[in-house]
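Board notes (copied after class):
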Amino acid sequence: MKAVLPAMARAMLGGRLHDLDVSWFASTEEAFAAAPEAEIGWLDMFDKVKMAEAIALAEKLNWLTSIYAGLDGFPLDRLAERDVTLTNGKGINAIPVAEYAVMGMLAAAKRTDRIVRAHDKREWLGDAPGKLELYGSKALILGYGAIGQRIAQMLSGFEVEVTAVRRAPAGEPNVIGPDDWRPRLGEFDWVILAAPATDETERMLGAAEFKAMKDSAWLVNIARGSLVDQAALRSALSWGTIAGAFLDTVDPEPLPPDDPLWTAPNALITMHLSGRAQTRMFERAVALFLDNLARYRAGKPLRNVVDLKLGY
């Protein structure tokens, strides 16, 4: 059984793979050379174009695994044509990303950005620049997977009233379907994006949605920048249609230095750092890979199998 795996995982996986024939790669060239013989592939790269090229070369691939939860950059159509099983990293970074979302809400509520700027200028503030409380507020979470559920769990400690949106509600309290959230936008103090980037979610928040929100509401995006119409968001911030936006993700990334969003009123941008603000990602990824490897060998269903048509 031939596998091509990242050299970064070697120290954690060494001695735990038994009879697996492994090629370890530390460069794109090594990945390209080994990929054609792989039955099992873990071909993650920062360069998504090169990664797609490596996957294209892996014509014997049966199972492709990834540390990434978002699958933009993966050749899903080609994988479907080859009947490859793809498993992703859903849940691996749920804790740090959810913590980042709550941090963003607290930063917005207390305006810690203004406090930090005053600190840098050695200016003693005579009053608190932010006076909102999370307690008793209402939040809408768009996307109720591992991250969305973790955010809801954390917000329960602040006694935030949470309503969540998922594709197929199963009767859970305060969980609604994808056709039910827009008429209710005016109810919420926080609109939190935690949905995957798909054709269905592209620009799901635009001018109409911002107009429907409270003018005191904040947008929190820890999903993907493509979920938001950024031109409409800039207008909403400039005109005070909404109170502000905490944006861990934008489109494109990196955001160009001259993009007006940098200077938009009440926009807090954190450079897509939520998933990097952790130390245990690879530890969790390795544990998931080993569990799935045991399942694969035993012919049992794998965890985190992606629906290649839906893209998540």
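Comment from the instructor: The chain has a mean pLDDT of 96. The two ends are 27 Å apart (CA to CA).
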